[in-house]
């Protein structure tokens, strides 16, 4: 795969939005169940990248879904967090969670796509995305848009699945993504296609140097990768110079 080739070339944003609309009601439950709760630890680690580098930042959470990363980031005293997503149903659940947590003065959700971010240049200090970039129809364009809305020296933070290297770990990971996840996902959400798509998007998405090249193509500098849990997930950071 070349770096400019869209990962989801056979599927467009309205289809992806509809798919997430249809699984939104089960998303949080399945997310924590299927990750055995590790996803929370990964989000905390991603937020630490922000708190280590910024004081009271203005944050954009791209592909925010039901807002878990935005809610996690609310703990570092940001000036404001804006979450964007193409699925209205995911955002609706996010808004409910934010209201329950009394965070509505801090976190706001807007329906908008990553490939055409609905904010002016230099509006944020940090643009972050968790488990979303592999869904973008054009990931380099999405990353470029994230860079565009950053102020100078702002940071892009990406949390995404990567592939473990150890022999046993690698096989367990393949069994999990190829069989267990589509089966359990379709069982609980009654939406087989969405969980098959999730498996394919994880298997096909570039990682390590290839993803770093995508970030470079998007104009980001000082790119760093932190692999977590044996390489199952990675955090990538890049700076707008
Ligand atoms: C796997 S969920 C991740 C949600 C959340 N960030 C999390 O950590 O749980 C992926 C989200 O990306 C959204 N999404 C997919 N393509 C998008 C795009 N092009 N622009 C904005 N959001 C998008 C989907 O609607 C979905 O809510």
Structure description:
This protein is of the alpha/beta class. It has helices at 13-34, 38-51, 68-73, 88-100, 139-148, 167-189, 192-204, 208-217; strands at 58-62, 80-85, 107-111, 124-130, 150-161, 221-228, 233-239. The chain has one domain (13-239): Rossmann fold (3-Layer(aba) Sandwich), CATH 3.40.50.150. The chain has a 7-stranded mixed sheet with strand order 3-2-1-4-5-7-6, sandwiched between helices. Helix 1 (13-34) crosses helix 6. Mean pLDDT is 90; it is low at 1-9. Bound molecules: S-adenosylmethionine (SAM).
Shape field: globular
Structural class: alpha/beta
CATH topology: Rossmann fold
Q: What is the assigned CATH homologous superfamily?
A: Vaccinia Virus protein VP39
Provide mean pLDDT, rounded. 90
Describe the main β-sheet briefly. 7 strands, mixed
Annotation, overall tally of beta strands: 7
Computed Rg: 17 Å
Q: What is the total number of structural domains? A: 1
The proportion of strand residues reads 15-25%
- The CATH architecture is 3-Layer(aba) Sandwich
Low-confidence stretches: 1-9
- Oligomeric state: single chain
Total number of helical segments? 8
